[in-house]
Design a protein that fits this description.
Helices cover 47% and strands 21% of the residues. It has 140 residues and is an alpha/beta fold. The longest helix has 16 residues.
């Protein structure tokens, strides 16, 4: 049984290791904590502290997974989902917010999932397994 679990984790991490994650959150401590955790899983992890900077980066770079805060100084993450989807339909958008009542709104707007604050790294790992199961690749 342990060998199967080990193999699953290896395949799971192998797919993610070729992917790029991006974080848009105005709280630098959250960006740094997420980046430190996600850097173990993804090929590349970058972040921005506002929508303007984040969208500019995403217009020039392919991003596979986006962790997007909802309450940003220059707008709402949920309101930007449509614009992000038009530019990159395959990106996996995960909304981050302390306001867990926004979960349904975020999903309806096109987010693939919702991550409540305070952030739990074990929840992030389980969440990512949905999008990077063993044997599958990221949608292109």
């Amino acid at each position: 049984m342990k060998k199967i679990t080990f193999r699953f984790k290896l395949a799971f991490n192998k797919k993610m290791k070729n992917s790029k994650a991006y974080i848009i959150d105005d709280e630098e401590d959250i960006c740094l904590l997420l980046k430190a955790n996600l850097s173990k899983k993804f090929k590349e992890v970058q972040y921005a502290k506002n929508l303007k900077e984040g969208l500019a980066y995403m217009n020039k770079n392919k991003v596979d997974v986006l962790f997007l805060d909802n309450n940003l100084p220059d707008g709402s993450g949920i309101e930007m989902i449509g614009k992000i989807r038009k530019a990159n339909p395959a990106v996996i958008i995960i909304i981050i917010s302390a306001m867990t009542n926004l979960r349904n709104e975020a999903i309806a707007a096109g987010a693939r999932d919702f991550l409540g604050k305070p952030i739990s790294f074990s929840v992030i790992s389980e969440l990512l397994k949905k999008f990077f199961p063993a044997g599958n690749t990221i949608p292109s």
